[in-house]
Write a structure and sequence with these properties.
By secondary structure, the protein is an alpha/beta fold. It is built from five helices and five strands; from the N terminus they run H-E-H-E-H-E-H-E-H-E. Strands 1-5-4-2-3 form a five-stranded parallel beta sheet. It comes from Pedobacter cryophilus.
């Protein structure tokens, strides 16, 4: 009965899992879904920025290559979780960094 509350979403990865899968996937794209200002203040090396809260998010999403695997993050993991859910509905293979950018291992 309680398993639905504790069941891990298969698209949610902790920092180390996220980094390991990102580095192992030849088709990986790192996607920062924070605002442009947040992105400019610092991001993970090689990340592309598409603001999930922007009015043109769906338009930009439709231009992405569905043959790629997307590793998505934000500040805390909430916006990126929403972005991954939207992406999954559109047929993308995408993973969310639980805990946000701060959970990504430095080395």
């Amino acid at each position: 009965m309680f398993e639905m509350f504790f069941k891990k979403n298969l698209t949610d990865l902790d920092g180390q899992e996220f980094k390991n899968q990102l580095l192992a996937d030849e088709n990986a794209v790192l996607l920062d879904v924070r605002t442009a200002g947040e992105f400019q203040s610092g991001t993970i090396l090689s990340a592309k920025n598409i603001d999930v809260m922007a009015s043109d998010f769906n338009t930009k999403l439709s231009k992405l290559d569905k043959s790629k695997t997307y590793f998505v993050f934000c500040r805390s993991g909430n916006r990126s979780g929403n972005a991954v859910n939207m992406m999954k509905k559109e047929g993308f293979n995408a993973f969310n960094l639980v805990g946000g950018i701060g959970a990504f291992p430095k080395n």
